[in-house]
Amino acid sequence: MNFSKTLINWYSVNKRILPWRETTNPYCIWLSEIILQQTQVKQGLPYYEAFLGKFPSVFHLANADEAQVLKLWQGLGYYSRARNLHAAAKFIVNDLKGEFPNNYKDLLKLKGVGDYTASAISSICFNEVAAVVDGNVYRALSRYFGIDTPINSSKGAKEFKLLAQELIDAKQPAEFNQAIMEFGAMQCKPKNPDCSSCPFKDSCVALQKNIVSELPVKIKSAKAKKKYFNFLVFISDDKKTVLEKRTGKGIWQNLYQFPLIETKREANFETLLELAKKQDLLKSVNFELTLYNKDTLVHKLSHQHLYTKFWIVKINTNLEKGILIDDIENYAVPILIGNFIEKFEF
């Protein structure tokens, strides 16, 4: 069986109609690939359309404030993608005079662009024979060839890249790359794939050996750390609240949040009150402190689980350095904070 021919034939019949497949504009392809990292198509599509609407070219994106970019990205998570996207746009405009890199090697110089993204852009936009390897590709290849090398190991990364590069159709690199990614997403799904309708059912090693559910193999990551977050939501007489910008390194860098008290375990009223006074967060004599959520909210990130409580602080004075509650929607916040703002009636 000719693997690439069968794959491309499957793609021609089964591919989804998506806006980034209607263009070879490198800006659009780059934008779609960054958005779709760690994100499903149905979630990423509205963001792609919103970004193109707000920033129709790399020049518009480069000239935007980072706060604008982060606000538009809000809800997608992995905010370093947005910061890198903005930095790369500035590099393209300021250092490359607005000319998008047109080959794999130069694309790798863009902040936030790795092997996969560079391969996707160079093949789709410039017809370069550079095979993509993402989660969908790992899954499809490991099952078809029966490969049990862990995909999140350096050995696995090299092995699958070499294999994909051997399989890619040199005459149709863009079609092949899009086909194998689509095949992994739509046909060779992570759970309960419909192997009976698969064009490779007669030659798939995993299906023949009945080990489809066991592949691909992944080394288990370290157990997620537990953190305990307590956010103080101030509400003043002059209809203001307090938001702080996170400046330290981390996934929420440059996003805004309510004043935070982190504890080693879940905090009760007395503990929280004592810590707030120690950290000089409760300066007003006249305030009312209440817990908003009786059940602790658990916000799961890839490397840590945040056990979160929101504490409402009503103060009977004005907040000189606060922001108007009516303006809170203008600030880019983590989805954890955004969900609270959406539910809470100030």
TrEMBL record:
Reaction equations catalysed: Hydrolyzes free adenine bases from 7,8-dihydro-8-oxoguanine:adenine mismatched double-stranded DNA, leaving an apurinic site
Its biological purpose: Adenine glycosylase active on G-A mispairs. MutY also corrects error-prone DNA synthesis past GO lesions which are due to the oxidatively damaged form of guanine: 7,8-dihydro-8-oxoguanine (8-oxo-dGTP).
Domain HhH-GPD: 35-186
Stated family: Belongs to the Nth/MutY family.
Name the record gives this protein: Adenine DNA glycosylase
Presence of the UniProt keyword Transport in the record: no
Domain of life: Bacteria
UniProt cofactor note: Binds 1 [4Fe-4S] cluster.
Keywords in alphabetical order: 4Fe-4S, DNA damage, DNA repair, Glycosidase, Hydrolase, Iron, Iron-sulfur, Metal-binding
Name of the encoding gene: mutY
SMART domains, alphabetized: ENDO3c
PANTHER family attached to this UniProt entry: ADENINE DNA GLYCOSYLASE
EC number: 3.2.2.31
